[in-house]
Write a structure and sequence with these properties.
alpha+beta, Heat Shock Protein 90, 13% strand
Length: 345
């Protein structure tokens, strides 16, 4: 069985081999000549070479020990999670080159650790947000159910309570569906499939689910889009993103208002404007409305959980697009969705 020699054994072996060669040289020299001066010079020369050999081996050992200690110190710092690990990158030596590779490995490990920590914080935040959103409808359901069990209600009042319970159940169902979509997107379980397709058809899919709510509020919905316009996008998920924006437009537009969809092809991107005549959004809240579960203080009476715009921005950004907002309080808002005209790799 082959065994690895210890470092000290290598040093001893090299020294012994050199001593043996030197001794053999002297024996041969003494055998072929009787000149005392030559013999003395040969002995002195051999002793000098042997001394230099010993010094060279000791220096080499010292260098290897220093390299090993430096390497062990760096690895210990990395394993202990030290934030600022020092690497000797200045010298053009084997140690410097090795430290450069070690530094790259450390940076990769650090990025992975940071990414895991970010994902952990994101999951904790999501759990906290969900528990907060679920708490209110669950409390309402318990209250309605307890009232119906403990009190004798008239048929009209019982019917009213059943409708209230149904609305809370619908809110929980919508929340769970939205959470499933969001988690699948964020964890990469669902990947978007971007391919050229008519954007008119995608807008039609988005409009299908808001036509009835718009009719109930007597809101006029208009579309201005070239039916032959082809844009690279994921049809299903882009329709989901546009629906969330349209759904908000209908929810927050007073009865008798207007919602319009206008599509314009620019040189680099296609712009989809969704405009309404609703309440409008203060400019200082433009960035906040895309946060998960964010809702304006003046719209808490309207059904919703504040996750639609978060999903819309995530879906569009995954297609290398973006969303802009312009709004004036009391006059309405316009959400502009930009999708690249060329498929991005």
């Amino acid at each position: 069985m082959k065994k690895n020699l210890p470092t000290n054994g290598i040093y001893i072996g090299v020294g012994a081999a050199f001593t043996t060669v030197t001794a053999c040289f002297l024996i041969i020299l003494f055998y072929i000549t009787e000149d005392r001066v030559l013999r003395g010079a040969a002995v002195l020369f051999s002793l000098l070479i042997l001394l230099l050999d010993i010094i060279l081996i000791l220096l080499l050992r010292k260098k290897l020990v220093a390299f090993s200690e430096s390497l062990n110190a760096c690895i210990d710092d990395i394993l202990n999670g030290k934030q600022n690990v020092s690497f000797d990158l200045e010298s053009e030596t084997l140690t410097g080159k090795f430290n450069y590779k070690l530094k790259r490995l450390y940076e990769i490990m650090q990025r992975s650790r940071d990414q895991v920590e970010e994902e952990k914080q994101s999951i904790q935040g999501m759990i906290s947000d969900v528990s907060h959103q679920v708490k209110t409808p669950m409390a309402n359901l318990k209250m309605y159910n307890s009232t119906m069990l403990e009190r004798q209600l008239s048929p009209e009042k019982e019917q009213e309570f059943r409708k209230l319970m149904e609305s809370q159940i619908n809110k929980l169902d919508f929340l769970m569906q939205a959470m499933v979509k969001m988690s699948r997107l964020e964890t990469g379980i669902i990947s978007l499939s971007v391919s050229p397709a008519p954007i008119y058809d995608t807008i039609g899919l988005a409009l299908a689910s808001i036509v009835l709510p718009a009719e109930k509020k007597d809101i006029k919905v208009s579309v201005h889009c070239d039916s032959a316009l082809v844009v690279p996008h994921d049809k299903k998920w882009t329709a989901e993103a546009l629906f969330n924006i349209l759904d908000n437009a209908v929810k927050y537009t007073p009865p008798g208002g207007k919602v319009s969809v206008t599509v314009v092809k620019w040189e680099m991107a296609t712009k989809i404007d969704i405009s309404d005549t609703g309440n409008g959004i203060p400019e200082q809240h433009f960035a906040q409305i895309f946060k998960r579960f964010y809702r304006e203080d003046n719209v808490h009476d309207t059904n919703g959980v504040g996750i639609g715009l978060y999903l819309s921005r995530d879906i569009i950004s995954r297609q290398c697009g973006y969303i802009q907002v312009t709004s004036e309080v009391g006059k309405g808002s316009t959400f502009s969705v930009f999708l690249p005209n060329e498929r991005q790799l």
